[in-house]
Write a structure and sequence with these properties.
The protein is α+β, with helices and mostly antiparallel strands. It has a domain at 2-214 and 328-336: Spore Coat Polysaccharide Biosynthesis Protein SpsA, Chain A (Alpha-Beta Complex), CATH 3.90.550.10. The chain has eleven helices and twelve strands.
Length: 337
């Protein structure tokens, strides 16, 4: 995947990409050797251990030399001209701090690219797979022809273009989020300090996505829940965190009951062992989610990452009575002039 991603960046053709950096989190698939052998002009940072998605991206931002930085997952393919389109949209409005493209699957079908901030109501709808029915657009700016852009709460971290000085001022990613949630946290801090975040639908990239999530789906689901608890502890009130715990545990209990029934049905039908194995995995996952506790407090700031918390927002919650075996990720950083 990384080879295809780098090849697509070199084929950008617009001159928008000034330098490319790859941060490798101790991968075991030969990625560092491939980069050195096939893309000698790429600056490679090879970590000796998996430091997490956020830390790897922060290393790339610190090493980048351009005025703008494109944070890009290695499981993406960028069509020619896409980076230039994103850069133009970022530069045309001084109030925009970050932009992102529309994401599609390998077959061209749409992925969710932008989201609402996970307030308790939105979190409940997400857990029930209903949030996609709600609009994610805060404001639409219509330009001439195909230049429309959409103001959104937060963008998926697979491809983000931002001003480098802004990223350096705000962190950029909080390393306390090992995986999942760091993109929500960054966008939340950007918006809290007055910056706009835009989805550029005309800019489209292919995001294969989910490779590690499918292989280690139980661990990844637990990581996602842990990260959401951390986000709530960091930015929202204690009642809101309590609501999030109730939502995760309540939905997990409902899914456990559902899957117990499915397991009995599959057993009676004599279904394949693989189906039964996956259901047993899911049953174990729901139990672990119910037992998962939020952090008692946000981890203290470090010398490398100062406290960046913004004033907590209090939500009305009365009605609503984050992997040791993960395959190391590779982060791609494109520094733009």
């Amino acid at each position: 995947m990384l080879r295809d991603c780098l090849a697509s960046l070199f084929g950008e053709g617009s001159g928008a990409v000034g330098e490319i950096l790859v941060v490798d989190n101790a991968s075991t698939d030969g990625s560092p050797a491939m980069v050195r052998g096939e893309f000698p002009s790429v600056r490679l940072i090879a970590n000796q251990e998996n430091l997490g998605f956020g830390v790897a991206n922060n290393q790339g931002v610190a090493a980048a030399r351009g005025r703008h930085v494109l944070l890009l997952n290695s499981d993406t393919v960028v069509p020619s001209g896409t980076v230039a389109l994103l850069l133009a949209k970022l530069q045309e409005d001084s109030e925009v701090g970050m932009v992102g493209p529309r994401l599609v699957n390998a077959d061209g079908s749409a992925q969710r690219s932008a989201f609402r901030f996970p307030t308790p109501t939105i979190l409940l709808l997400e857990q029930l797979s209903l949030a996609r029915l709600l609009p994610v657009v805060r404001r639409r700016d219509v330009g001439s022809g195909r230049d429309d852009s959409l103001s959104v709460d937060w963008l998926l971290g697979a491809c983000l273009l931002a001003r480098r000085d802004l990223l350096q001022t705000l962190g950029p990613f909080d390393p306390r989020f090992f995986m999942y949630g760091e993109d929500i946290d960054l966008c939340y801090r950007l918006r809290a300090t007055g910056w706009d975040i835009r989805l550029v639908p005309e800019a489209v990239i292919t995001h294969l996505g989910g490779q590690s999530a499918r292989r280690y789906r139980v661990q990844m689901a637990l990581r996602s829940t842990e990260s959401m608890y951390l986000f709530y502890r960091k930015h929202y009130s204690t009642p809101a965190l309590f609501s999030a715990v109730l939502i995760f545990r309540g939905v997990a209990a409902m899914k456990w009951l559902r899957d117990v029934g499915r397991l009995g049905w599959f057993a009676l039908r004599g279904s394949e062992r693989e189906h039964i194995r996956l259901l047993l995995e899911d049953l174990g996952l729901w139990v672990r989610v119910v037992r998962l506790h939020p952090p008692p407090q946000v981890l203290p700031a470090t010398e490398d990452y100062p406290d960046d918390s913004v004033p907590r927002r209090r939500w009305r919650c009365a009605a609503l009575t984050s992997v040791p075996t993960l395959r190391a990720l590779t982060a791609g950083i494109a520094s733009l002039p």
